[in-house]
Amino acid sequence: MPSDAALAVSLATLALWASPAQAAQAAANPASEAPLAEIVVEGQHEGPRMWTVHRGDHVLWILGTVTPLPKKMVWQPQAVREVLAQSQEVVPAWPTYGIGANPFTALRVFIQWRRMQKPPDRLPLKETLPPALYARVAALEAKYDPHDSRLEQLRPMLAAERLMTRVLDASGLALHNEVQATVLNLAREQGVHIRQDKLKIDDPVDVLKDVGATPLSAEIACLDAVVTRLETDLGPMQARARAWALGDVAALRQLPHPDDRTACIVAVSTSDRVRSLIERAQNDWLLVVEDSLARNRGTLAVQSMDRLLGEHGALATLKARGYDVEGP
Predict the structure, then answer these.
(1) What pTM does this model have?
(2) According to the model, what pLDDT value does residue 248 have?
(3) Strands, DSSP E only, in 212-323?
(4) Using the 8-state DSSP alphabet, how is residue 192 labeled?
(5) CA 13, CA 84: separation in Å to the nearest integer?
(6) Could you tell me if 125 and 150 are in contact, meaning their C-beta atoms sit under 8 angstroms apart?
(7) Beta partners for residue 70, in sequence order
(8) Distance (Å, rounded) from C-alpha 261 to C-alpha 266?
(9) Of all helices (H) and strands (E), which one includes residue 81?
């Protein structure tokens, strides 16, 4: 049975990794020509210092994260404990997804989710993809996960997500955001309210149908973008993971970050319903943190570095709206 966040697998997860713009930048970076075989960052690390956003005597602390992170990293969150002692609320990076409590709706979502796993034409991946792209997929699979027989049975969009996860795992990287999970667990231990807004999906079956109706050409473009990213950007991804663990924000600013307009987001955004869902998920965080900052003397928020940094990032937006922003 898919969880409430199952939709995020096909909508949000690939959005982190399939940026053609970043792949082009990485291809021009000499470091990307010889990606590291494995990243090892052992021992305890605090990660980067937090940003602070002030409005009068109210303060918002923002912990920036990156994905993926080193699998063997042990995060030391003492600074987070100290901030939580001064906070009344914690704001996670993304809302949860809710489909309601109707068991019949849940059953229909499950059936539709199972149905959309396989390509509509039921052909294996080898017969679905252009030969040149399939050869690149097969080369990555042979190098990083030669015993995976499941990939061949998936539609291109979901094959992209599975291939990405397998390659990152073999490279010593973890896709799951353990940093945010740790922050939320610490907040519960210290009795700090977690403002986990739920993005209500009123028509989840129709949303999944829309995603399932993604044109094959768009799905292939999505997979192509993910393969290009894995071929050219693995080294910079490892460098970002290492820089985060060591608290090196200067390096994080210099390394390229994914933008929001990716081949995979474009692929699944063929309907107004799905586009609206993605936009709501992306925009809600800034609205929530501004509201929390206005209400609370202290708030801790978590957000990915790629959404924080840059001239159009959340930090620049908050500064443009008149907040005092300080940070590493």
Answers:
(1) 0.74
(2) 84
(3) 298-304
(4) P
(5) 28
(6) no
(7) 173
(8) 7
(9) helix 78-84
pLDDT of residue 102: 53
Question: Among candidates 54, 84, 288, which has minimal Cα distance to 189?
Answer: 84
The two structure tokens encoding residue 270: 């063929």
Partners of residue 298 on adjacent β-strands: 59
What tokens does 256 get?
A: 């390229």
Query: What secondary structure letter does DSSP report for 75?
Result: E
Q: Residue 64 has what DSSP assignment?
A: E
Q: What element of type H or E holds 89?
A: strand 89-91
Percent of the chain predicted with pLDDT > 70: 66
Phi, psi angles (nearest 5°) of residue 301: -125, 150
Q: What is the DSSP letter of 11?
A: I
Total count of residues recorded for the chain:
328
User: CA dihedral defined by 195, 199, 202, 206, rounded to 10 degrees?
Assistant: -150
Place of tokens 């979502």: 109
86-96 pLDDT, tens per residue?
999 999 987 66
What local confidence, expressed as pLDDT, does residue 54 receive? 93
153 CB-side CA count, 13 A = 6
